[in-house]
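[Q] Does anyone have a clean structure-token version of this?
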Amino acid sequence: MADSLLKTAMYEQFARVGKALANPARLQLLDLLAQGERSVEDLASAAHMRLSNTSAQLRMLHDTGLLTSRRAGTRIFYRLSDEEVAALVETVQDFANARIATAEQAARAYLGDVADLDSIGRDELTRRLLAGNVVVLDVRPAAEYAAGHIPGAVSMPVEELDVRLSELDPDQEIVAYCRGRYCVFAPQAVRRLREHGYHARVLDGGMPEWRRASLPVNVRPDGRATVSTPVG
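[A] Here you go.
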């Protein structure tokens, strides 16, 4: 009997992680935090959530060990505990997309058909960057670019793309990336570029996947950023 109770207690603790992830708002917050450190206020604005609700969701993620926090004056800043958290979230997303038909349908409805965007892998992009024959666009908001980006990438937020096309060479291949595989910014950017006659492709994955592959990242010395941006 005692062993049974101890076993149940152990599994209850394991289940806390599942409970923490079993909420779309919390998954959205984790996706945003995979780009860099954020304050509670910035996260509430970016996720279009009430401040009180955002704070409560972040506390639960923190209590489960998925986030760390720091206080600066009256503001509290959160960040992922480590890169394994981003990997866990990506695994959950990919598993759901592969196993649940309605999840795949929802992703397709949001992102469009990404199969026709001719994605490029990280290894190939690294070779192309070393050869100097590709232009890489970071189409996330500028503050996320400042928090960490692929070396050599040009910051061109997707909402600025149409007015900055003249900065791009139509004879060069362009690769766009954003927050990850389920971020809409890069697919939107590639489709717009192709409409204007540019040879554009999308990176398979985004900044979090690039980091976890231990590839070079340009980042501010303190590794911190406070950002207030739309959800992608």
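[Q] Thanks! Anything notable?
[A] The longest helix spans residues 2-21.
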